[in-house]
Amino acid sequence: MENSTVKKNKQVLLYYCVEMEDVAHKIASESDSILLHSINWRSFADGFPNLFINNAHDIRGQHVAFLASFSSPAVIFEQLSVIFALPRLFVASFTVVLPFFPTGTFERMEEEGDVATAFTMARIISNIPMSRGGPTSLVIYDIHALQERFYFGDNVLPLFETGIPLLQRRLQQLPDSENIVIAFPDDGAWKRFHKQLVHYPTVICTKVREGDKRIVRLKEGNPAGCHVVIVDDLVQSGGTLVECQKVLAAHGASKVSAYVTHGIFPKQSWERFLHKNDDQCFCCEGSEKAFTYFWTTDSCPHTVKAIANKAPFEVISLAGSIADALQI
Fold it and tell me: What's the mean pLDDT in 5-23?
């Protein structure tokens, strides 16, 4: 008689920051092995955090995780305070899930005096205390520059995940799934993502300098007659995506959509992408529906609330992927 062993999921106690509460509940709904625990997020009269970790005695010897969102400097300190406290409560292991690494675009110095804040943030996170199980696991999605993995010290074990499989699943559901072409807005995006999207024809755009302006041009590939999906890790103002859409449409693309893992959209810059027949649309660029779809994940919760039920936006949740990552 053969012995067969079935790997049993470990039970994970998941704490979360206030703005990630909806995502935390989605993660817990993905697995019976993930149990939500809460923190009292309060402030003293002077504005500094007054925090309390509920069930602190009960988590001894348990696998514990914290779902973070460093959406602004104002919330980072209170979350770091909890992140530094949890592994010292005699937990069996500790994992921090930080879907969006916010200073990732500031990863290099171009002249003496520049401060690479991506390195600063990585150094802070690298000093999270070890738990009884060893170094803290750190889960990040589509970090802006892959070399940033080397910014982290040996006290943390970074696990770099990606939202691309979620995009692929969504593309397969489209009625024109056989007519998809992937476009990259620059060579950096191509280097980053093309190996994960090898089954699709590709188009590469590039920025060229003309006088004082940087103009988007088509570098290679043919978008004519296809549904072209622009893929990048994040969007801020969206200017590059808008210019890419214009170039692709001019070269005959039948539809243009976009995917970014992290929809940052400072100063409500998402408004420029709204379809003109939306009541809330004040400044849609180009044609009435320049973008057929605009997909992003729930890594930036403030954006998720802002774009809810507004075409062309669709939010693809990271919850299932995070639930899987917590079992590693």
Answer: 91
